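This part of the workshop introduces the protein records we will be handling. An example says more than a description, so a record of this kind follows:
>
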Amino acid sequence: MPTELLLARPVAGSVGERERVAHLIPMPQEPGSPAYLRACCGARFGPGELELLDQIAGMPCEECLVKAPGAESPGLDQLGAGILARLAAIESRLESFSAQLASVLELVAGPDRKADHEDNRDG
Protein backbone atom coordinates (compact mmCIF):
# COMPACT_ATOMS: atom_id res chain seq x y z
CA MET A 1 0.00 0.00 0.00
CA PRO A 2 1.46 3.41 -0.95
CA THR A 3 2.56 5.75 1.83
CA GLU A 4 0.30 8.75 2.34
CA LEU A 5 2.34 11.91 2.95
CA LEU A 6 1.53 15.00 4.98
CA LEU A 7 2.97 18.40 4.11
CA ALA A 8 3.95 20.47 7.15
CA ARG A 9 6.46 23.05 8.30
CA PRO A 10 7.64 24.25 11.73
CA VAL A 11 5.32 26.79 13.35
CA ALA A 12 6.32 30.46 13.17
CA GLY A 13 8.71 31.42 15.94
CA SER A 14 9.89 27.88 16.66
CA VAL A 15 12.81 28.17 14.22
CA GLY A 16 14.30 30.89 12.04
CA GLU A 17 12.45 31.68 8.80
CA ARG A 18 15.13 29.92 6.73
CA GLU A 19 14.45 26.71 8.63
CA ARG A 20 10.67 26.88 8.09
CA VAL A 21 10.84 24.59 5.09
CA ALA A 22 7.95 22.37 4.06
CA HIS A 23 8.62 18.77 5.08
CA LEU A 24 7.08 15.57 3.74
CA ILE A 25 5.91 13.41 6.64
CA PRO A 26 4.61 9.86 6.24
CA MET A 27 1.12 9.51 7.75
CA PRO A 28 1.41 7.51 10.99
CA GLN A 29 -0.04 4.02 10.54
CA GLU A 30 -0.42 3.04 14.19
CA PRO A 31 -3.62 3.98 16.05
CA GLY A 32 -3.55 6.83 18.57
CA SER A 33 -1.41 9.94 18.70
CA PRO A 34 2.30 9.33 18.16
CA ALA A 35 4.79 10.99 20.52
CA TYR A 36 6.48 12.60 17.53
CA LEU A 37 6.45 12.69 13.73
CA ARG A 38 9.52 11.99 11.61
CA ALA A 39 9.89 13.69 8.23
CA CYS A 40 11.34 11.86 5.22
CA CYS A 41 14.59 13.79 5.82
CA GLY A 42 14.83 12.38 9.36
CA ALA A 43 13.84 15.57 11.23
CA ARG A 44 11.73 14.81 14.29
CA PHE A 45 8.82 16.99 15.45
CA GLY A 46 6.85 16.83 18.70
CA PRO A 47 3.30 17.98 19.47
CA GLY A 48 2.59 21.58 18.53
CA GLU A 49 5.82 22.02 16.55
CA LEU A 50 4.30 21.73 13.06
CA GLU A 51 1.83 23.66 10.96
CA LEU A 52 -0.07 21.31 8.65
CA LEU A 53 -0.23 22.68 5.09
CA ASP A 54 -3.09 22.01 2.70
CA GLN A 55 -1.07 23.34 -0.24
CA ILE A 56 2.53 24.10 -1.10
CA ALA A 57 3.82 27.07 0.89
CA GLY A 58 7.37 28.26 1.36
CA MET A 59 10.48 26.42 0.34
CA PRO A 60 10.43 22.62 0.29
CA CYS A 61 12.89 20.57 2.31
CA GLU A 62 15.23 19.31 -0.41
CA GLU A 63 16.25 16.26 1.60
CA CYS A 64 12.59 15.27 2.06
CA LEU A 65 12.07 15.50 -1.70
CA VAL A 66 15.08 13.28 -2.33
CA LYS A 67 14.22 10.71 0.37
CA ALA A 68 10.43 10.63 -0.11
CA PRO A 69 8.84 7.36 -1.15
CA GLY A 70 8.46 6.87 -4.92
CA ALA A 71 6.02 8.67 -7.18
CA GLU A 72 3.42 5.98 -6.51
CA SER A 73 2.62 7.83 -3.28
CA PRO A 74 -0.74 9.64 -3.39
CA GLY A 75 -0.29 13.32 -4.03
CA LEU A 76 3.46 13.26 -4.61
CA ASP A 77 3.10 13.92 -8.35
CA GLN A 78 0.89 16.95 -7.66
CA LEU A 79 3.30 18.15 -4.98
CA GLY A 80 6.25 17.95 -7.36
CA ALA A 81 4.31 19.66 -10.14
CA GLY A 82 3.33 22.45 -7.76
CA ILE A 83 6.92 22.97 -6.65
CA LEU A 84 8.12 23.07 -10.27
CA ALA A 85 5.39 25.59 -11.15
CA ARG A 86 6.43 27.84 -8.25
CA LEU A 87 10.10 27.63 -9.24
CA ALA A 88 9.21 28.48 -12.86
CA ALA A 89 7.21 31.50 -11.67
CA ILE A 90 10.16 32.67 -9.56
CA GLU A 91 12.52 32.23 -12.51
CA SER A 92 10.17 34.24 -14.73
CA ARG A 93 10.01 37.06 -12.17
CA LEU A 94 13.79 37.10 -11.87
CA GLU A 95 14.20 37.33 -15.65
CA SER A 96 11.70 40.20 -15.76
CA PHE A 97 13.46 41.97 -12.90
CA SER A 98 16.82 41.49 -14.61
CA ALA A 99 15.51 43.05 -17.84
CA GLN A 100 14.04 45.99 -15.91
CA LEU A 101 17.29 46.48 -14.04
CA ALA A 102 19.26 46.47 -17.30
CA SER A 103 16.93 49.15 -18.68
CA VAL A 104 17.36 51.30 -15.59
CA LEU A 105 21.13 50.92 -15.66
CA GLU A 106 21.14 51.89 -19.33
CA LEU A 107 19.12 55.02 -18.55
CA VAL A 108 21.41 55.93 -15.66
CA ALA A 109 24.52 55.40 -17.75
CA GLY A 110 23.26 57.65 -20.55
CA PRO A 111 24.21 57.51 -24.23
CA ASP A 112 27.85 58.62 -23.73
CA ARG A 113 28.61 55.95 -21.15
CA LYS A 114 26.78 53.32 -23.22
CA ALA A 115 29.07 54.08 -26.19
CA ASP A 116 32.14 53.93 -23.91
CA HIS A 117 30.96 50.60 -22.50
CA GLU A 118 30.47 49.17 -26.01
CA ASP A 119 33.94 50.39 -27.05
CA ASN A 120 35.50 48.70 -24.01
CA ARG A 121 33.64 45.49 -24.74
CA ASP A 122 34.89 45.41 -28.35
CA GLY A 123 38.49 46.16 -27.49
Notes: The mean pLDDT is 80.
